[in-house]
Amino acid sequence: MKPLETQLDDRSVLGKVQRVLECFEAQTSTLQLNELMRRTGLAKGTVHRVATDLVCWGLLERVAGGYRLGLRLFELGQLVPRQRILRETALPFMEDLYAATREIVHLGIVDGVDVLYIEKLIGHRTAQSPSRMGGRMPLYCTAIGKALLAFSPPELVDRVIERGLVPLTPHTAAVPSLLRSQLEEAHGRGFAQEREESAFGLGCVAAPVFGPGGHLVAGISVSAPTTRFQTERLAPAVTSTAASLSRALGSPAPRASSLDREAWAG
Known about the structure:
six-stranded antiparallel sheet, alpha+beta, about 270 residues, Beta-Lactamase, globular, 9 helices, Arc Repressor Mutant, subunit A, three-stranded antiparallel sheet
């Protein structure tokens, strides 16, 4: 679990709870008490007390190998209105997009300087992807992140660049001028793409999704192995799906010409 941009005071109870919960990752779903101590930097008694309380609340579970996140967190997550309504509306469109492409379909939103994946559809023949439902990736090196950035306020792009463009592969657009050029291009044509910027052997096309009032609410994408990745085949399907989902959410189909293109030239 990636730490939030805003950290609570470690001296507060909630600050300690935040430190403990953020220790868990997809690759390390179970952690022993000593490892929680090491990752949080908190005293053994403090970590044990916080973990015990979290187990009582159902936010953690005590298992043979230590502690893992509890089902109560999953229950609470399903109650988040923005995620639940967006996912429920988007799923039929995502299923149609998967049926048309037979490739990985993602739905993601902006969260800080990352894209947070709130839904992912895969099949038997789809490629391995570093993304996962509930996971995060940097906005600057994913197609869905670039689609979101291209239609977000320029201040967000500035913040992403200020945080640093760390390359995930040699193909990552880790130079600010190159990233801005890519975003301007995506902004003009209505979709973004990337080839092996986030993972070797994988390409992706993504388009923005708008809601009531024409406000950006999400991005939708299709990822495929580079051996069968064809922008001319995937882009029309992705942009058409994004437009249909936007209308279902109460917005007209996104039009790049309605945005201030000059804002991205700086």
